[in-house]
Amino acid sequence: MxxxxxxxxxxxxxxxxxxxxxxxxxxxDQVSLxxxxxETVGLVGESGSGKSTxxxxxxxxxxxTSGQVCYRGQDIQSMDREAYANYxxxxxxxxxxxxxxxxxxxxxxxxLEEPLRKLTNDTxxxxxxxxEAMMEQVGLPVRYLSRYPRQLSGGQCQRxxxxxxxxxxPEMLICDECISALDVSVQAQILNLLNQLQEIYGxxxxxxxxxxxxxxxxxxxxxxxQHGQVVESGPTEHVLTQPEHAYTKQLLHYHQLIx
Length: 259
What we know:
alpha/beta, 4-stranded antiparallel β-sheet
């Protein structure tokens, strides 16, 4: 469904105080991966490993220095307008901070309605019906549609963000550290919600996180990134219980998932 082929992303670094020359920073280094329908793929690694940059390349928030992102077999950079719009509609994001991903001057109804206005031909009545149904599916009272993001907790806002992403019925969600800003008890609720919604919609998830316990809970497969490269991948249970790469073992010992 969505494929990255030999993806590279290099940023121009800043020169140090002893040198005016800047060194390039390789954020993603020759990464290839494929995401299949209705699966959850965990992408783990320490801060700076390149996992968020890889997610942004797959969702076209950044363009690769080299390599290809293909959606249903077609390079997204060679798509015509209609095909590209279909790709963007079907690949949605849920970001780390729900409050900053929403306009604070918009009501929750406005937040949810915006993508429906821009990307569908739904009537006002149809939009309202979809929003009300989605509020129920993400576990929020319909009356919250008239509230503002600041009037909701972090967990409630993240439920809205997930609902907003799913309103277009995308094939894939890229969840970039989507629980890391939440309390531990709320994190568990959001993970359970994602599982429930996947059962309903059949959405593919790319779950980007430094939290190995969360990745173990939600993912079918896992990819481990270090210094911009995928150093280990495979079924989640196997990788996180019988790791082969030294870096994966280091991560697991650090998170005390193995002893």
